[in-house]
Amino acid sequence: MSSRAQVLFHVGAWAWVVTGLGHLAITALLLGRPATPAAETAVLGAMRAHRMTMMGLSRDLLGLFRGFSMAMGLVLALHGAVCVLAAPALAALPAVVALNAAVSRAM
């Protein structure tokens, strides 16, 4: 594996980490701020009012949305961290490089 390809893999892995941490930070910031526009307040109210039962637990749609958003950020950051830590081994595997590139393009 060329050193250029190794550097590009490392840059891509760090991009996943930064994107995941950014997603977590933005989600956390949005949790603490009050909804000001009337349309946003109406949407958040409707999401709170709609409840779902999943695996025996009742949750509102807003809680599920926020939970999935936090999970997405965590998964991105952790996958990027694994790629950073194992970059020499993973960058040499064409299947891993192709999968990471395909997922990055899809996101």
Molecular structure report:
It is built from five helices and two strands. Helix 1 runs antiparallel to helix 3. The protein is elongated, with a radius of gyration of 18 Å. Strand 1 and strand 2 form a beta hairpin. With 107 residues, it is mostly helical.
User: How would you characterize the largest beta sheet?
Assistant: 2 strands, antiparallel
Principal-axis shape: elongated
Briefly note the structural class of the backbone. mainly alpha
Euclidean distance between termini CA atoms: 26 Å
**Count of distinct strands:** 2
| Rg computed from alpha carbons, rounded to a whole number of angstroms | 18 Å
Helix tally equals: 5
Taken in chain order, the helices and strands follow as HHEEHHH
Question: Percent helix among the residues?
Answer: over 70%
| Beta-strand content bin | 5-15%
